[in-house]
Amino acid sequence: MPIHHAIWKVATQPAPLVESSLASEKLLEEMIVAAPRMLSDEWMLIGRQEDTGLGGRIDLLAIAPDGTLVLIELKRDRTPREVVAQALDYAGWIETLRPEKINNIYSRFAPNHNLAEDFRQYFGHELEEDSLNQSHQIILVASSLDDSTERIISYLSARDVPINVAFFQVFTHGSEQLLSRAWLIDPVRTQVSAATAPNGPTEPWNGEYYSSFGHDDSRSWTDAVQYGFICAGGGAWYSRTLRLLNEDDRVSVKVPGGYGYVGVGRATGSASPASTFKVKTPDGEFPVLDVAKGGTYHREFVDDPERCEYFVPIHWLQTVTLDKAVREIGFFGNQNSVCKPTTPKWRATVERLKQRFTDFDRG
């Protein structure tokens, strides 16, 4: 069923705003370039109107915090089916991009800028070459789609193709125009699909979850071990994949930034915001922010459901300190807080971790 917005002016007699349209879809592209966060505050734009060599140009190219590339195609004057087919065709080109080519694309988009430096400033962590373009997302931008095209996109998404639609609708309010945005599919599903099915060979998921735990000023691995949790926050991109974990799911935890795998445990519950999450101590149960002092845990965002820290309770089967983190060439790595990888590298990593963490199968 096509998505349709309606907006009312708040009053004792609510009045609907009149739907209108932009002068051109080119204007929408200009607006996204000028204010990328209107599309997503989780992506950094790195390219625009790049020639694919396939007889066309991509509208926009962005990068996510884990190095995933995001292909953004505006409907323009094409039919919905045409834009879907075009985007899938371009995705094949995106999949082949190597780091040098991606750097060249960014140099044309932002002359005299360095992709690695700007990525670090934008996301707050290093861009590791091994993680660059491990996978990609396909985002279509439109004001409407027909039923058939929505069915096609929903079909692809249900089969883990990382595709989604951002709907923008325009309304008139006096002499001004207002823009609304909605997603056809929950963005967490698209993010998970991209992390689950990276570029290259895949295989059935082995049932083991992966977690990236960002030990820094924001959170402490020592706290996580002592109080039994993993966590993420500072933005929905980082925290929402924690929702993948349910009670009894086993997860192997890696601390990025030169460390490695530091523990394996089982979830004893689902994700909760910092404001409600409690941990057990010898003196009883306390709110996590009252006792976990090794990091800030985004306390400044505690009342913001998008940016606050979220926690998943964990029963640790085995952990090591950061200086004894397990790190080997060829191990799987990803910036997603939680994912369920289907790459052969993940199966090989788990098999090796079972040898290093002898209590892997305990409990």
General description of the model:
- This protein is 26% helix and 27% strand.
- With 363 residues, the chain is of the alpha+beta class.
- The strands form 4 sheets. Strands 3, 4, 5, 6, 7, 8 and 9 form a 7-stranded mixed beta sheet that branches.
- It is globular and about 65 Å long.
- The protein starts with 7 loop residues before the first strand and ends in a 7-residue tail after the last helix.
- The relative contact order is 0.12.
Brief characterization of the structure:
By secondary structure, the chain is of the alpha+beta class. It is built from ten helices and 18 strands. Strands 3, 4, 5, 6, 7, 8 and 9 form a seven-stranded mixed beta sheet that branches.
Features:
363 residues, alpha+beta, 7-stranded mixed beta sheet, 10 helices
Q: Topology as H/E string? A: EEEHEEEHHHEHEEHEHEHEEEEEHEEH
Number of helices: 10
Q: How many β strands by DSSP?
A: 18
Give the fraction of residues assigned to helices: 25-40%
Strand content: 25-35%
Globally, the shape reads: globular
Low-confidence stretches: none
First-residue to last-residue Cα separation: 46 Å
Radius of gyration: 22 Å
Give the overall pLDDT as a whole number. 91
Structural class: alpha+beta
Note the main sheet. 7 strands, mixed
